């Protein structure tokens, strides 16, 4: 059986880039009949709203990820909150608590928007690149349960709206250390995560990503990028470029 046509939902971070690489490997590993009908995964690129000024950086990173991995960019008119996609672990214990208490309506809405686009694009699978880790990189069972429940709920809601598909969360149950192992095994370029590019551009307050040209890097975005970089540093060791 041919691999299903897939739309990947990512926030432009390292977890999302790993999910893209895994989806691509799944297609390339196919050795069944009718290989000419194979379709590389599509990468969803919505309009990001973000209070920390990272929206343009994330969107540009997704364009670059699609180019690097030969994925098809699926640019969308939907606007989503970048943080609602849960592609990054909380940066502190306080954020852990905030994530636990925060309503999931924004995230469910964003995922449902992606599913609607998936239906238009004739995709039968949505890969949601999310994480359920705490600020120390450990998987939280309660957070994982919320992620899995949201995926199931959104798939059902999409069905009500006439879109039949599965929502997969292939990296949600991985600790940050396991993500780092897979990043190394697959040769995923850590420097292409949005936060790494932001730090590269921090010296002159701009970042240049793919063919999108210079992008202004707000102070808040740089602070957020540094916080994420600090979380990954212990498990990535020498893989992350300073």
Topology:
Elements: E1 6-9, H1 14-28, E2 42-49, H2 55-69, E3 72-81, H3 93-101, H4 105-120, E4 125-128, H5 141-160, E5 166-168, H6 176-186, H7 194-200, E6 206-208, E7 214-216, H8 219-236
Structure characterization notes:
With 242 residues, the chain is of the alpha/beta class. It has helices at residues 14-28, 55-69, 93-101, 105-120, 141-160, 176-186, 194-200, 219-236, and strands at residues 6-9, 42-49, 72-81, 125-128, 166-168, 206-208, 214-216. The strands form two sheets. The protein has a five-stranded parallel β-sheet, sandwiched between helices. A two-stranded antiparallel ribbon has the order 6-7. The model has no long low-confidence stretch (mean pLDDT 84).
Low-confidence residue ranges: none
Distance between the termini: 43 Å
Q: What's the mean pLDDT score?
A: 84
Query: Largest sheet, order of strands side by side?
Result: 3-2-1-4-5
Strand segment count: 7
Reported for the largest beta sheet, the result is: 5 strands, parallel
Tally of separate helices: 8
Helix content: 40-55%
What general outline do the C-alpha atoms trace?
A: globular
**What string gives the helices and strands in order?**
EHEHEHHEHEHHEEH
Rg over CA atoms: 17 Å
Structural class: alpha/beta
Percent of residues in beta strands?
Answer: 5-15%
